[in-house]
Design a protein that fits this description.
Blueprint: H1 3-9, E1 15-17, E2 22-25, H2 28-40, E3 45-49, H3 58-70, E4 75-81, H4 82-85, H5 93-103, E5 108-113, H6 120-125, E6 141-144, E7 147-151, H7 157-161, E8 163-164, E9 167-170, H8 174-188, E10 192-195, E11 205-208, H9 219-231, E12 244-252, E13 257-258, H10 259-272, E14 281-286, H11 293-301, E15 305-311, H12 328-345, E16 358-363, E17 369-370, E18 373-378, E19 387-391, H13 397-401, E20 405-412, H14 415-430, E21 432-434, H15 449-456
Parallel strand pairs: 3-4, 4-5, 8-17, 14-15, 15-16
Antiparallel strand pairs: 1-12, 2-9, 3-6, 5-10, 6-7, 7-9, 10-11, 12-13, 12-20, 14-18, 16-21, 18-19, 19-20
Length: 463
Amino acid sequence: MSLPRLVASLAQPCIPVRSQHVRVLQSPAQFHSTLVDMIARAKHRIFLSSLYIGTTELDLLRSLRHSLAANPRLTLHLSLDLLRSTRPGPASSASLLAPLVASFPDRVYVHLYKSPNLAGVLAKLVPRRFDEGWGTWHPKLYGVDDDLIISGANLNKSYFTNRQDRYLHFASSPALSTYCFDFLRIFSHLSYRLLPPETPHTPFTLRWSNPNVDPTSIQAAAQRTLAHFQSSQPRIPAPPAVDTFVVPIIQAGYLNVREEERCLTLLFAHLAHMPDAHAALIDLTSGYFALHQPYQDLLIHSPVSSRIIAAGPRANGFYGSKGMSGRIPEGYTLLEKRFWRKVLQANRAWSPGPAPGIELNEWEKNDWTYHAKGIWYRPTLTSPPELTLFGSTNLNSRSANLDTELSFFMHTSAPALRTQLDAEVHNLRTGAHRVDEDSWRKRERHVRFGTRMLVAAGVEGML
């Protein structure tokens, strides 16, 4: 079976798109300018999904307000994480958005999703600073009419300026945009709706959206709804000119929805049986390199070579944080070392030749942080990628088990789009340098005993 047929045979929907409508953005500034331009041109609907909206993003709020005021038929739908969006303090995403809801009560819909993992007594005991460790709403979808940006970036200043991520822009792609919009609608019925304050002493009101479902026990309803949603998607016949297909993959391990794990297992099994597997190459990156154990095994035992990029300590978003969170970069160093030890034990360390093995790199750039994630597959070491995995997943245990993720496979035979994907990999690798056991012997990479104890206590699954 060829790789395109494998992609088309997956149980998930397979959505045809035109390669000339796909643009791979390379920088935070491109992401920001494209998003603002899309909002300014909105005619019917804007739908945005993110972990949160930064409390300093007043320009983004003004752009949304201006488009709503200019077009009385326009609707705005936002899906955010409840815990992150209601953090205590002088301002929050929820308090920022409440006036917009009040101004356009019939056209602005803000839904805040709360993972059912943290409930009851535990929810009262866990400090607010750490409650996201039990799971978050994580899809990053930015849609306007039939245009869509799929990313791993949030709506915050750093993601618009100096926090590197991935961003794929699909123009005039109604089937893909409608799928993403409908996905968000499903979870809106399992979320709290943000409303204006009911009293002068509160900045906003939260109201549960579904009277037929207990907000602390949504698992069964969510499983049924998601299974029906995926299975009922129409198989869209591909016009002759279509050379690119996108497959949406939902991962929510806490709901026993594990499409990402199944798809990656099928992909690696398929690649292992290809006649020229040893000549192929996989690029993989994650800003949070606590790679899910099954994915580690797939990489190490695959005949396909791979190049990995992780965030270096200074490019980790938690670098320099106070308290326990300041140990997080150390925790990732420890997990990197453990992964590399397995690579060495399997005799897969990178070496020159036709089947070079596994290379581990760290990304660092002055005053920047790193948040990119995904996979690229190319059939030879020198050919451009023909398959990529992109979206919200960090490919770690947390993404597999705790968070709600929406990611996508894209396969293309279009030379121009493959060239764009190749340029994307090159751009990310420009800031990366190879690391190995000698790198971690340096004094600045020392992992303190307390950090080791935290990882041993199970924090690894939350990183």
